[in-house]
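Q: What structure does this chain adopt?
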Amino acid sequence: MESGRGDCGSLERAVEREWLVTNGIGGFASGTISDMNTRRYHGLLMAALSPPVGRTLLVAKVDATVRYGGATYQLSCNEFSDGTITAHGYLHLESFFLDGAVPVWHYALADALIEKRVLMEPGQNTTHLHFRVLRASATLELELTPLCTYRDYHSHTHGGWDMNISQISNGFEVQAFHGARPYRVICDRAAFTSDPAWYWNFKHRMEAARGLDDNEDLFRPGRFTLTLDEGQAATLAMSAEAGAPESFAAVSARIDESGQALLAVLPSDAPRWIRQLALATGQFIVDRYRDGHPVGKTVIAGYPWFGDWGRDTMIALPGLTLALRRFDVAASILRTFAAHASDGMLPNRFPDNDEKPEYNTVDATLWYFHAVDQYTRRSGDLTLAKELYPALGDIVAWHRKGTRYGIKVDAQDGLLSAGEDGAQLTWMDAKIGDWVVTPRIGKPVEVNALWYNALIVMADLSKQLGKQKAAEEYRTAATQVRSSFQRFWNEAQSYLYDVIDGPEGEPDPDGRKRDRCLRPNQIFAVALPNSPLRAAQQKAVVDVCARELLTSHGLRSLARDQNGYVPCYQGNPLQRDAAYHQGTVWAWLIGSFVDAHYRVYRDADKARSFLEPLGLHLGEACLGNISEIFDAEPPFAPRGCFAQAWSVSEVLRAWLDLHDGAPHRFVTDTV
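A:
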């Protein structure tokens, strides 16, 4: 998690290494270690104005210039649409590292050494940019130039409009337009000089690579100037909150205390990269607000562009919370989503514009049963499960009688069917216009593995709550599903069909279709606590996934010899979405692969070794985090979100479970 001159002094390397800080309500700050913004999502104050959504970029960056010993040093770096790159401040960057989860830059200027840190106040849309003179033989002058805007984080600013700037004590306030949230930029050690101007045509090279518009204009309200001697420090605070910002020291202490609490539960022999992942978990857990007040916890699926998604939340919950003994946070998340259950379904996602939740998912609700079960087993607390039991029973009832999108139990075999034209219901959910890339209509294999697991969870929970009749009914239903699950077995190729009884695939003797695409979805039939497969089938599934899908950074979403395989996730939105689940490697799948491998081979050291390469990845893209996806072929370049909740959580959880002997994962192989 530390970069020296070799990485810092090379622009091509420095722009590939990103950093992230968050505020626990959906807001964040991010950028590259070079100080060049390469994404529309980079910025120092990305405020969540309707937490955890309504994310709005307010301060894109602050260009810093130091005058020392008769020389001028620019610490910033900017790229413009004509190809010009200015300042090249990264050439002065001696090192970059993470102090816990806080990004730290050290700039060497002759005999002076300047430290820069960025952090956000927990629970506040406030960012602190902190400079300290670690070494100097004379006084230096620091000039700070904020570059401001006011825009949705998915868009770009194009200038020429009037931003209302008011000079206030120690800085300025921005009222971007009528009805906009005012925000302030202040520095109590500095003098502010008003000098308004638009800066034109910044280029975001990552947006160009993604086939999107890449041009932005930013507004300069003026400049801050101050002098510092060795040992002195100054903080520029940017805030969309009404109250005065906390001091940098106080915020830093709070962040350090939170980090130490996360690390305290780790085993003493946890390697550094596991400790870093534990710190990263705190970036994804946020408060969900209603009427201006927090009403529960939820999970940001990924930075920089995802909000809170139901599926991602339930999959990530064990690693983000339970593995670190944050049982109160887990309970809050589970209650938050239970409150939004509708017709037996949990929300797929909460839109950024704070509209009503979307329910286009078949598996998020089934992962909820797994999350509740893991909470109960790991915490030893039955109280929450008892509270949620009626809602869980209602979900099962809705699935039996049928709910949205054709989700309904087939009474003949007990399996769960789902899907209709134009809807993407499983985690393989890419959709381009009206084209669903992987529709998977019918009975998807992982959905029915989850359905089986949910029924066993309900049977066990009913028994614990003294509801013997219900327990017997759930177990009878699970027995039917376990028997019918054998229809997924592809005897000729010794792995599981991806979907059965849908419109695609080869017909069975009864004329029903079976999709034999070799995908990783079958691994869940081995990895979930309650497996519907025989031991020999479990081994065959693990072996085929290891042989055809396993990479250093996760599992391919489609085997290389299959029709439609795409080796690289690149290009415009159409090209990228077409590749999203057609070979692209997904890091989160490694957790279930490791679980399944351990279940079959019972070798914890070997299973844990599959996680080690992702420890190296923590120093490659967003430092201290794990990317969402990777190319399907070497060198497996990171793609998608640079920090993904279920990637971080599943790697962390799997490592900790294997360290502890995996006591919470594997319950029984029989009904």
